[in-house]
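Amino acid chain
________________
===
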Amino acid sequence: MQPETTSYPSISPSVQADSSEYSESMASPSNLRKDDELWFEDGNLIIVAGGVEFRVYKGPLLLHSEVIRDMVSMPLPSSLDSTESVDGAVPSGPETVLAWVPVHSVQFHDPPGDVRHFLRAFTPGKQLRIGAVHPSFEEVSACIRLGDKYQCKGLVEVYIDYLMQYYPSGLTTEPSGPNVQLASNPLRYPLTPPAFELKHTIGVVNIIRDLERKGLDQELDVKGLLPVAFARCMMLGSQVATGFDRSDGGREKLSREDLGRVFVGQANLMRSYYQALKRILDVQFDPHWPRPNGPSDCAEVLKQLDHTLPDLKTGILDPTQLVYMLCEDLKQQAVGPKRMKLCDDCYVWVLGRAREEQERLFRGLPAMLGLVEEGLQR
C-alpha cells in the first residue's frame, strides 16, 4: 500500500540568472525510484522530487522548517492502520516491525539533486560528515535556495557565513612592525572555497542577487560579499560572459547588468592597481623612506621590481592579493640570479606601504564597480 501523496502548493524557488522554475509532472508510483543514498526503511517521511523518492526522518526537518511542518500537518489517510505496512504487505514477524511506521509523503517541485543536498543537512547519508567538511558549490547553492524556500533560516545563515570567509567584506588585520619574520608572511586570501572552481564565483554573485530580490540582503548582510566576488569574476576571461552548466541542466551566468559591471570594474581596477604598485615602489620620491642616503641596493631592488609591473598587474586582479603577490615577487628576486634582497628596514617599510595601498583599493572597489549606487560603501 503506497502512502498518500500530499501535493503542496508550489512555492517559487530562488531563480538564478538565465534559469526558469524547475517543473515536473506528477510521477506515477510505477515511475518512481528510490534514492540510492537517502532511503531509510524506518523513515517516516517520503519526499518525491523529479521522479525520485527520498525516505528520511521528519523530526529534524519539522524542527527547522515551518513550511515542511505545514506540508505534513494533514492527517494520514484513514486507510493506513497499524496492521499494514506502508508497502501493503502483512507483517509476518518481528523483523518487519519497522515496516509499519506511518509515513507521510509530500511532493517537492525542485530538482532531485538539489533536494538531496538539502536533505543531507538534516540526515547523514552514506558518508558521515565529521570534522571540517568543505561543501561544493552545488551544495551551497541548493541549501541556500531551498533553505530560503522552505524557511530554514538557520541553514541559510550557516552557508552564508561560510561564503563570507572567502568573499570578505573587510580585510583582516595582519601583523606588522619591526618583526620581519611576521611581516614577511602576509596573509593570503584564497580565491575560492576549497571545493569551488573559480567559475562558481558567477553563481555566488547570483545567489546574492537572488536574496536581494527577495529583500533578504540586509537581514542576512550579504551585500558586502559582492565587491570581492565581482573582482574574482574578472579573472575568468571569456567564461565570465558564457557562464557554466549546472548539475540540474540549467546554465549559470551573470545578468546583462552585472556582466557590464564586471567589464567596467575591470578597467577601473587595472588602472587603480597599477597606480597603487607605482606608489609603493617609487620610494625615491618619499621623504619617509628609511634609507634615502643609505645603501643603494634597496633602491635597485625596487627599480628591478618596477620593471615587472606589467606581469604583476595582469596576474591577479584582486585587492585582497596585492600584498601577498608583492611579497612573493620580492622573494623571487631574493633567490634569483642576482640575489637582490631588501634590507630588513626597507622590507618592513615596503610591506607597510603595500598594506595601505591594498586597503585603499579594497575600500574603492564598490565605486569602481558602480555598487555605491546600490548603497554599498566602505
Notes: The beta strands are 5-6, 33-39, 45-49, 52-56, 104-107, 244-245, 251-252. Confidence is low (pLDDT under 50) at residues 4-27, 79-98, 175-183. Residues 180-374 form one domain.
